[in-house]
From TrEMBL:
Residues 47-527 form the ResB-like domain. This is Cytochrome c biogenesis protein ResB. The keyword Membrane applies. Pfam families: ResB. It is found in: Membrane. Residues 1-24, 539-558 are annotated as: Disordered. Signal peptide: none annotated. Keywords: Cytochrome c-type biogenesis, Membrane, Transmembrane, Transmembrane helix. Its main location: membrane. It is a multi-pass membrane protein. It comes from the Bacteria. The chain crosses the membrane at residues 49-67, 103-125, 195-214, 472-491. It comes from Streptomyces coeruleoprunus.
């Protein structure tokens, strides 16, 4: 209690609180299972511990954002371990590569969940009691409350109380007549907002847990003209929650009809992407074909799944012929972009059906480098100076031998293992290498065949197909949390009393007072507005004129 706070104010403010009553400090609980369990439960369900756990949960999410996660990209995790031989094993023991499924993160998560429920249940029970109750009667001395007004009126006490009751109800107060005063209360939504905020946090925690347990997420690179059916074998990479079942995969398919991108043609922002669009034809659950366009941050929603557009690149169409002139490969080769101007690199592997000039079975490998708009630096190294197809050039060399596809070691489709291969040489004995324009061909020495850069150049796009069953609940929880927080911060619980009694001279004495849960300038202002409105109904009584004194005047001679 502050120095300026009276016992009446303290008692009235305490009765307005809906927080669980705190027990008086006493001796610590006796040793024993029951005693320590009660003590632990009180600590766990306190608001202080809930805030600490919420802070720890936020803090624990930081490593998940800064350190590569197995659930997102295992390749980056392996690269991190190779680059950091000391930190890698330490992070592995601390489960920092699997933060959101780690034991310590799950423990914080579960404790916060239990703590919030333990906070909410008693508060909700007491708040329900407050809603069922009536505003308390007026304190004996209203003059001690922080906001106070009084005047005398010719209206009778009953008329004043009736007018006050009507006025307060009109201003959405819960009001009743209690003795010689009208008691009113307002601002219940403050505690309702507080409870809503905590319930919304629980909803968000449950939604987050369901999203992690039942989610599925995979990636697929598709060349123009090719399609995708939502089955496990179609994915380039796939991740899912521990409770996800393959039967939960959405039933749909789509074909990438065309990818189009536009770029800033000149100026300081030359080459900056302006639009990326993937025109697709899709069908849901075997239904009729539909047309759609997928843009960045504008996914295609189909059968509960969302298809996001992630990246794009070029896929030159290449034809490879063997020593007898027979076509052993013809198709688009997706290449990975290296920079913002889409300088791209990749590999073409010919594993089956190829025979060299002597009719012997062999394998071919072609490292490829592609630029959509050709340029060279001072060292005659080619690069792209614009991302659109203005002057496309394909640089290739050639190897033959064992591609080691049967070695049992997983291979990157964009890299070529040349440990068991031999590079073709030109007539001068130099490694065979040539820059090809669309329509040009590079002949392999010794009648080993050829590779042709066709005039057709396709584009590819990579998509992320995601199923997050609890996203709607998470969004609803976030909106509800914000609404509850706004209510708990800006709505003030306050009480108003209006007392009307007959004075000794028969004139009614009217008193008004207000009390809020915290110091606020709005409480006196609100009381002033109410007093002005009530004053128009029960105006101030005129001051009684003083009686003239009796004066005896003595007249001369009479």
């Amino acid at each position: 209690m502050s120095k300026t706070e009276t016992p009446e104010q303290t008692d009235a403010a305490a009765r307005m609180s809906t927080a669980p009553a705190e027990e008086e400090a006493g001796a610590p609980p006796a040793l024993g299972v029951i005693g320590w369990t009660r003590w632990f439960w009180r600590q766990l369900t306190s608001m202080r511990v809930a805030l600490i756990l919420l802070f720890l949960l936020s803090l624990g999410s930081v490593p998940g954002s800064l350190i590569p996660q197995n659930s997102v990209d295992e390749t980056k995790v392996r690269a991190f371990k190779e680059a950091n031989p000391t930190l890698g094993p330490l992070y592995e023991k601390l489960q920092l590569f699997d933060v959101y499924t780690s034991v310590w993160f799950s423990a914080i998560y579960i404790l916060l969940f239990v703590s919030l429920i333990g906070c909410i249940v008693p508060r909700a029970w007491q708040f329900a009691g407050q809603l069922r109750g009536l505003p308390p009667g007026a304190p004996k001395r209203l003059t001690r409350l922080p906001a106070y007004a009084t005047w005398r009126t010719e209206a009778t006490p009953d008329e004043v109380r009736e007018a006050a009751l009507t006025l307060l109800k009109k201003h959405r107060f819960r009001a009743r007549t209690a003795g010689d005063a009208v008691a009113a209360e307002k601002g219940y939504l403050r505690e309702a907002g507080n409870l809503l905020f905590h319930v919304a946090l629980i909803v968000m925690l449950v939604a987050f847990a369901c999203g992690q347990l039942f989610k599925s997420e995979g990636g697929k690179l598709i060349v123009e003209g090719d399609g995708f059916a939502n089955t496990l074998t179609q994915y380039d990479d796939f991740r899912s929650g521990s409770l996800f079942s393959l039967e939960d995969l959405s039933h749909f398919s789509f074909v990438l009809d065309q990818f189009s991108g536009t770029y800033e043609p000149d100026g300081p922002q030359r080459g900056t992407p302006r639009t990326f669009e993937a025109a697709v034809t899709y069908s849901e659950k075997g239904g009729p074909d539909k047309k759609g366009v997928i843009r960045v941050n504008e996914p295609l929603e189909v059968d509960g799944a969302k298809v996001y557009l992630l990246e794009h690149g070029y896929a030159p169409v290449v034809t490879v012929r063997d020593g007898r002139g027979r076509v052993v490969h013809k198709g688009a080769v997706p290449l990975l972009p290296l920079d913002s101007n889409v300088t791209s690199t990749g590999v073409l592997k010919v594993m089956d059906g190829y025979r060299d000039g002597k009719g012997r079975k062999d394998m071919l490998g072609f490292p490829l480098r592609f630029v959509p708009t050709y340029a060279e630096d001072a060292q005659n190294r080619m690069f792209s100076q614009f991302p659109a197809l203005a002057y496309p050039v394909l640089l290739t060399s050639a190897y033959h031998g064992d591609l080691r596809v049967d070695s049992g070691v997983p291979q990157n489709v964009y890299q070529l293992d040349t440990s068991k291969m031999t590079q073709f040489k030109d007539a001068k004995g130099e490694p065979l290498k040539k820059k090809l324009l669309p329509g040009e061909t590079m002949q392999l020495p010794g009648g080993a065949g050829s590779i042709t850069f066709e005039k057709e150049i396709k584009e590819w796009a990579s998509f992320q197909i995601s199923q997050q069953p609890a996203n709607g609940w998470a969004l609803a929880g976030a909106v509800a949390a914000i609404a509850g927080l706004v209510g708990s911060l800006f709505i003030q619980r306050r009480r108003v009393w209006v007392r009307a009694v007959e004075g000794e001279d028969g004139v009614t004495v009217l008193e008004m007072a207000a009390l809020g849960r915290s110091e606020s300038a709005k409480v006196p202002e609100e009381l002033a507005d109410l007093a002005a409105a009530l004053h128009s109904v029960a105006p101030t009584a005129p001051e009684a004129e003083p009686a003239e004194p009796d004066v005896d005047v003595e007249r001369d001679g009479k």
